[in-house]
Write a structure and sequence with these properties.
Shape: elongated
Structural class: alpha+beta
Distance between the termini: 147 Å
Strand content: 35-45%
Mean pLDDT: 84
Low-confidence stretches: 1-26, 319-332, 376-380
Order of helices and strands: HHHEEEEEHHEEHHEEEEEHEHEEEEH
Number of helices: 10
Number of domains: 1
Strand order of the largest sheet: 8-9-14-15-16-1-2-3-4-5-6-17
Oligomer: single chain
Helix content: 25-40%
Largest sheet: 12 strands, mixed
């Protein structure tokens, strides 16, 4: 009987203790749970999230970029450059637009077409000169401007020798995506960034802007030069397109030079050929360094839904030739301008190269000579 009692007590003890023992085993942390507890998932800060999404723009396959130069006082834009780019094909369409409300005409425009990372490039030369009202100058005949404007203007192909510096171009995104130095941006206080779904905004003024915030960044300077030469027997407009590295920002320029032979001037009725040869020089452009040297305002806006990135830079520009629509040099003066830059993914279609209505440089010379020179010879 005693043995049976002890056995029964043992069974009851095991029945009573086993649930407690089981509960204790489940409460003991396993190696896996310990590892999970050590790895704490931390949400990225607003600054980290913003910089990551800005960096991701380097990988977008197709984009639209715009850069504007705006007078802060009048809020009028002086220059606007638009780039449609495809980083996969290397194709691009680039529009330069210049505005001057005090001039007539008050809008100058030129377009560039580039294929396969500028292996082939074209420019709307006659449209460019006509928009400048170039052929209305006093040393052209009265109807020259109408004649040149009536031409169904083709695009002119650059010769390979006229495309300079493009052998170093590997990515359109790297060339035209303007980002601040991310290490400098990381110094910005978190409380300076605001997020209202889906838009991030960051606004800094003067001393709050990290010093040389565009240091160690590198984009491009794209410059178009048109040299017009007119003599007694020939008229030509030779183009050159140059790409160079632009430290700490972006730059776009368009320069028009001319050389008119005195003998040619003698054919223009009523023109005094004893005076100095007239020189029409247009040096137009925009560069972000114009304002970043004395930066007063730095603003970023990023829409994470559309991936539209906008960068506004305001600053004081000193001794810069802002009277770009005149021949004389600007006097020393301070100007308040801002550059407004935007970049976003964008689907667009490039004209087929074979369908593009184009002529060679030699054909342009023949066309201009035929319209501006030959008719003079015939009238004589």
């Amino acid at each position: 009987m005693k043995l049976k009692y002890l056995t029964l007590m043992g069974v009851m003890s095991s029945l009573i203790l086993s649930p407690i023992s089981s509960a204790q085993s489940t409460l003991e942390p396993t190696e896996e749970s310990l590892l999970r507890s050590e790895v704490t998932e931390v949400e990225p800060s607003k600054l980290e999230s913003l910089t990551q999404q800005l960096e991701a723009l380097k990988e977008v396959p197709s984009f639209k970029m715009q850069l504007k130069l705006v007078n802060q006082r009048s809020n009028e834009k002086t220059v606007e450059v638009t780039v449609l780019g495809n980083t996969t094909t290397g194709n691009a369409i680039i529009d330069y637009d210049f505005y001057d409300r005090l001039s007539n005409p008050n809008h100058y425009h030129v377009r560039l077409y580039a294929y396969d990372h500028f292996k082939y490039a074209y420019v709307t030369t006659l449209d460019w000169l006509n928009s400048l009202d170039y052929f209305s100058q006093p040393y052209f005949k009265r109807d020259d401007a109408l004649v040149m404007a009536s031409i169904d203007s083709p695009v002119v192909e650059f010769e390979q020798s006229q495309l300079i510096g493009f052998d170093q171009l590997t990515s359109l995104n790297d060339a035209f995506l303007l980002l601040p130095n991310m290490n400098k941006l990381a110094q910005v206080p978190e409380e300076s960034i605001y997020y209202i779904n889906p838009i991030y905004t960051l606004s800094l003024e003067r001393m709050a802007i990290p010093e040389v915030i565009f240091s160690d960044t590198k984009n491009v300077n794209l410059k178009l030069t048109t040299d017009v030469t007119i003599n007694e027997t020939e008229a030509s407009a030779m183009q050159k397109l140059e790409l160079s590295s632009q430290p700490s920002g972006l730059a776009f320029g368009a320069l028009v030079n001319q050389q008119i032979d005195r003998t040619r001037l003698a054919t223009i009725e009523g023109l005094d050929i004893n005076r100095d040869l007239p020189k029409m020089v247009k040096d137009l452009g925009v560069a972000t360094t114009m304002v970043t040297k004395k930066l007063t305002d730095f603003d970023i806006a990023f829409n994470e839904r559309t991936q539209l990135y906008t960068l506004t830079l305001a600053g004081v520009t000193e001794n810069f030739n802002l009277n770009i629509f005149e021949d004389k040099t600007a006097s020393f003066k301070s100007y308040e301008f801002k550059t407004v830059y935007s970049f976003q993914p964008y689907e667009w279609t490039m004209p087929d190269l074979l369908a593009l209505k184009s002529i060679s440089q030699k054909e342009l010379t023949y066309l201009m000579t035929n319209e501006l020179i030959d008719e003079v010879s015939e009238s004589e």
